[in-house]
Amino acid sequence: MIKSYKLRRGLANTFIYILLAVLGLIWIFPLVWLVLHSFRINPAGGDPATMVDHLFPHLDEYGINNYVELFTKTDFLRWFGNTFIIAVVCCIISTLSVLVVAYAFSRLRFKARKPLINVGMIMGMFPGFMTMIALYYILKMMGLDQTLLGLILCYSAGSGLGYLVMKGYLDTIPHALDEAATIDGANQFQVFWKIILPMAKPMVIYQILTSFISPWCDFILVRLIMQDNVNNYTVSRGLWMWTEQEYKAQGYFRFFLAGSVVVSIPITALFLYMQKYYVEGVTAGGVKG
Amino acid sequence: MKYIDYIQLNPLQRFWYKFKETIKNLPNTLKAFFCAIGKAIKNFVLKIALGIKDFAVGFAQGDIITKLSYIIMGLGNVTRGQVIKGIIFFSLEVAYIAFMVFFGGAYLSQFFHLEAQYHYETISGGRGGTSQTLVYDSYSNQILLYGILAIMATLAIVAVYVASTKSARKCEQLVKAGKKPETFISEVKEFLDSKFHITLLSVPVILICVFVLLPLIFMILMAFTNYDDKNYFSFQWVGMANFAEIFSGNTTGASMGYTFGNIVLWTLIWAVAATFSNYILGMVVALMINKKGIKLKKLWRTLFVMTIAVPQFVTLLLISQMIGQSQDSPLNLIISMFTGAPSQFNVMAPLYDGWIARIAVIIINIWIGIPYTILMTTGILMNIPEDLYESARIDGAGPVKSFTKITLPYMLFVTTPHMITNFIGNLNNFNVMYLLTGGGPSMGDYAYGAGKTDLLITLLYRLSVDKQKYGLGAAIGILVFIVCATLSLITFNMTKSAKDEEAFS
After folding, report:
1. What angle do CA B233, B461, B372 make, to 5 degrees?
2. Are residues A4 and A58 in the same domain?
3. Torsion angles phi and psi, residue B334, rounded to 5
4. Is there a single domain that holds both residue A10 and residue A55?
5. Looking at chain B, which terminus has fewer C-beta neighbours within 10 angstroms, N or C?
């Protein structure tokens, strides 16, 4: 009996291994395709055709030409720099404002607290797209349309509204701590800086990483705000442009592939690093008020 | 149902019970919600009335300097020792007046009809002749935007004004009582302690007002105008006409009402299918990875999580290229590998009422969504007590049965709120639709070139960015908001009811 149970379990496990392997292959296939094709060159020189009649490149078709040309012949490096600047500044502004708003709502008690929390939640329920066109006009009014500063403001100005997750986390830090500090003579600012901030470190890291990553992934807002000012594009907008028909016809698709790989490496590394914080963030925040 | 009955139910029944109760209580919840809004408005009005009374009393009882500082803000402060504070009040007043005189006032006066202002300029032509050219002084969208800005500025200055009169009055009373008003430095110090919330919130609130609230009000008001490509420079208030167009179905052919109804239906189908397929299948994969005796758990998990770590626009653009209709696209290459004949399968072909594209999108979304579920549920799955499974196995339950009777109810119980947020996220899942299909295939029976996979949110984008029907787009945005807000309200209530229960303890 025991033997047959073991056998059955072994069979079941083998079956699961096979299934997982197949699924894993399906999941990883597009990424492998992306990486392999980003190294594909035309041995005869010039552009390799956009799509080929074989699934993976032949052995003699590998080379690093695409990458070399990506950095020397296209605007990619410039876009990468733009995105990096935007991401760093956004990351600082967003993290600070989320932290500050969440702290005020979680720790301080004042008359306007409840109404402000409710207004914030209601404002967060409007589809973000609705405001995009108005944002463009506002930036135009300020003379900031098609500039990096304008884009930074768009990304980070409203980030204070994303206080829910952070507030949920701060709520779990015992109030006894700040009370003790207050008794010892700390004012509110010292409580915030010396007690709460170190305690909330994991959530702060999560916030920093998410706000750093998001400018790399947005493509809609950039398109609207930068219009056709190619110099100020971010990586995602530029790569998107290269998949458009006219660029594809000029053989830019290989740059799209190579560029995607270059962008994906740091973002993927950051995400894998922060995945444990990610789970915490998603489950901690939710809709708890 | 009594509590004793309730705790005897199994988790799934409990969940159903709670769900039914929530639905049953929905009218009450909504009623309570609107009552609360009503009450808030009532309180607000009361408070304003009290404030006005205070204001009038302060004016009547104050001395001549206090009375004067009702006109010249900050005078009371300056003369009574709070020089810096007084100067700040005064300069704010001057700034506001300058703003209204040189800029805001003109737009505010046109706010009620919105029509663009223009005049004809006579330009002398090259051969001695002259021609009349239309020159716009202000466009309607400028009037709307700057009008809102002026109103916001006015509200802000009213608040400052009330504060300044209060402060002048307080100074007067303090001086009369023989005390000195607070110094500027001690007041500033208060902002680090008892008024710390103002210090913290001021910058984010100002940023949110300018970059979220202002555009939001702009777009909400836009829903009541006829702003579109034909009335690009000059448009008017049209009341509810945009909403009427959305719900109108009487026009033949591609009416907006028909389009809207079908797109709402598809949006719902999509959200349900996407949420549940991701949830259930993701959990199955997570269970397989977590099964006892499976090695290399971390490797398997990373394999799946890799796909969401890569920026979504990369994977989505890549897949949309991979399923392209050309004979050389990877999808067709794989198909022809199996069939042996060249294949020209086109997902976007306008066949079967667009259902090929729709199903393809749902399948691709499974590819995108499962890793998220794996990431989410792994931790929770490991918390399910092992003895539950063991006793079930002894009682003769197979893997399928223990999944449907133990795992699923447990997970549903723990993750319902997350699932509803997920559902709302899917209702508004712009990225997937826009990058994969762009809303297509368009079969010509929808208005404004909308396609069969268009969701409400992509319809909103199509109308307001591509088709420049800003008014109509804004109206749809408001409808989307109403749906999402209602769903969030339900979630909020369900979590509240779930929070104090301790099932599975």
Report:
1. 155
2. no
3. -65, -40
4. no
5. C
Q: How many domains does chain A have?
A: 3
Do A62 and A96 reside in the same domain of the chain? no
Is the bond preceding A57 in cis, omega lying within 30 degrees of 0?
Answer: no
Chain B residues in contact with A189 (beta carbon < 8 A): 192-193, 196
How far is CA B342 from each of CA A50, A175, B319, rounded to the nearest angstrom?
A: 18, 69, 20
Nearest CB to B304 within list A27, A101, A122: A27
Number of other CB atoms surrounding residue B98 within 10 Å: 11
Report the residue of chain B nearest A182, measured CA to CA.
B193
Interface check for B44 against chain A (CB to CB < 8 A): the answer is no
> What residues in A contact B324, CB-CB < 8 Å?
51
Of B326, B333, B379, the CB nearest to A279: B379
Q: Do A68 and A179 belong together in one domain?
A: no
Per-position pLDDT tens, chain A of length 289 = 456 767 777 787 888 888 888 888 888 888 888 888 888 777 666 666 666 667 777 777 777 777 877 788 788 888 888 999 999 999 999 998 888 888 888 888 888 888 888 788 778 777 777 788 888 888 888 888 888 888 888 888 888 888 877 887 787 778 888 888 888 888 877 888 888 888 888 888 888 888 888 888 888 888 888 888 888 888 888 888 888 778 877 777 778 888 888 888 888 888 888 777 777 666 554 433 3
CA distance A161 to A21: 42
**Minimal C-alpha gap between A180 and chain B (Å):** 16
* B457 and A127 Cβ atoms separated by less than 8 Å: yes
Q: Is residue B289 a contact partner of residue B297, using CB atoms and an 8 Å limit?
A: yes
User: Smallest CA–CA separation between B376 and chain A, in Å?
Assistant: 6
Pick the CATH number of B256-499 from 1.10.3720.10, 1.10.1790.10, 2.30.38.10, 1.20.1260.10: 1.10.3720.10
Q: Do residue A20 and residue B330 have CB atoms under 8 angstroms apart?
A: no
Which of B:298-327 have CB within 8 Å of A? Answer: 300, 302-315, 317-322, 324, 326-327
Q: Which domain holds residue A64?
A: 39-73
Q: Is A23 on the interface with B (CB under 8 A)?
A: yes
Model pLDDT for residues B277-300, shown as the tens digit of each residue: 888 888 888 888 877 777 787 888
Same domain, A168 and A130: yes
Please answer whether residues B221 and B475 qualify as being in contact, where contact means their C-beta atoms are separated by less than 8 angstroms.
Answer: no
Shortest CA distance from A53: residue in chain B: B328
Is the sign of the CA dihedral A79, A81, A87, A92 positive or negative?
A: negative
Residues 63-82 on A with a CB inside 8 Å of B are: none
Q: Which residues of A touch B379 (CB under 8 A)?
A: 279
Cβ <8 Å between A131 and B40: no
Residue A20 sits at the chain B interface (C-beta within 8 Å): yes
CB proximity B219 to A under 8 Å: yes
Residues of A in contact with B373 (CB under 8 A): none
Are residues A126 and A87 part of one domain? yes
Round to whole Å and give the CA distance between B162 and A262.
57
Token readout for B27 is 């009218």
Percentage of chain A beyond pLDDT 90 is 3
Query: What burial letters (b/e) apply to A16-27, b meaning 16+ CB within 10 Å?
Result: bbeebeebbeeb
Closest to B411 in 3D by CA, of B382, B386, B434, B390 = B382
Q: How far apart are CA B353 and CA B346, in angstroms?
A: 14
CB pairs under 8 A between A and B: 251
